[in-house]
Design a protein that fits this description.
The chain has 526 residues and is an alpha+beta fold. Helix 14 runs antiparallel to helix 16.
Length: 526
Amino acid sequence: MLDIRIMKQQKLIPIILLSFIGCLTAFFVFLPFLKPGFIATDDGEWMVIRLSAFYQSFADGQFPVRFLGRLNQNFGYPVANFLYPGFMYVGSIIHLLGFSFPDTVKIILIGSYGIGAVSVFFWLRKFFPNVWDAALGALTFLLSPYFLYDIYVRGSVGELVATSAFLFSLYCIENKRKIFLAPSIAFLLISHNTLALFYMAILLAYCIIRKAWVMIGFLVLGFLMSAFFWLPALGERSMVAFNQAVISNPFHYFPVSHLLILWSLPLCVACVYAVFKSPLRYEKEKKFFTILFLGSLFFASALSFIFWKMPTLVTFVQFPYRFLSIFSIAGVWLIAYMVSHIERGFFKKVFFCLGIAYLGYFAFQRINATRITIQPEGFYTTNEATTTVSDEYMPTWVEKIPKIRANNKLEWFKGNGEFIITYESTRKITAHVIAHEDSILQINTLYYPGWGCAIDGRPTEILYTNPHGLMRIFIPQGEHELHLEFRETVFRFLADCISFLGIMAYLGIIIRMVVIRKKSKNKKSV
């Protein structure tokens, strides 16, 4: 009996030690987020501004949120119809709990990175029972040069959220958590446009390799549940300037990729080991992650320069270093695979310490260079910029993008009269209008399909063939009631219906599983 207790205590010691190391590493990585203010990054503050505008439209009753009325100098535009709204839906709920918008984005970043690390640990545990192997993988993820660059230089909230959903999906597949897989996939698909495509292809291939055939059905179910976003985003893509916009020159970013690859040397060592080591187990999985690692390494580096001359790749992926997200996750599996083959505990621990020390040095440099900016929340909640680099989600009929906001939401473009705005929000405007003659009233809001207008309860045409793409309404002489509202188009409504049916099917599966479990329990008790 005493021997059993001693054995249990001996097993608990490494778990307690690794838990302490994990918590200490997480505290070190997240330390800048615990300080007042917000981290100065390329896109981080834009994400806070976009979230505040999204919440405003959400609070005004727009659901799904597609048109952000406050942005674009208060003229609005449909950025949320195209650009990953996942973190903004979550952020809106967190903000409702009383957190400021900057703190909300901090919570999302910390939560995503933390969930990702925990998912990595329990995912790897299904392959490598030794707790040191899985722990090294999780710590490698936490100290990953690319994801730290994502957080502390780029401020890419969407990429971190999508990566967290992807890693949780891997955990669900490996542990046969069917119930959690479908919503995880749905959330992945609304978390980041580019990475969602990468990760979905990887998950499908992973299910095939692991022969998790049942899980493919839940991948499809999650795909359907998120149709409200991806279907309009794809179907209406030709309406915006995305395909014509030049967002980045990929050749300028190869040095960044090369530096991040250099700082990921332990992952490269693990890949070399996997290539030359005869596998004792997991041969298919080893080949799969090695191919992912080498393929993403190729496309992230200057070796692939010929492919980056293709407009489609440049338009959709934009930055070569974005492939390092796949490189980092494949490397996490490979590094755990390599360490699992080290039989002597001493050498395992030495490599563990050396790998963490190497990655930790880069992390220390990156975190030490962090700069904090302190702004009042009003800076974020009143900012009316587009929050995109090249206004790539501006409708194609907009020839001139406004530089300053209009003085009034309504103004007479032709003719004259009087008006009183009786209600105004980001999705609805009502006004009492008196036209002294046949006139044209300009609404200083950019037109996008979904906006409809009625005069005295009768639908009327919206004119928008003007350089700024603003809505203009013909008003007959006399006294009228004007009603403008942004609603779902028929196409978007069909997409919403697909999502609704997917959610209903998902709930039906849950109910069926609960009923079956109850029946099986009743049979056992009898």
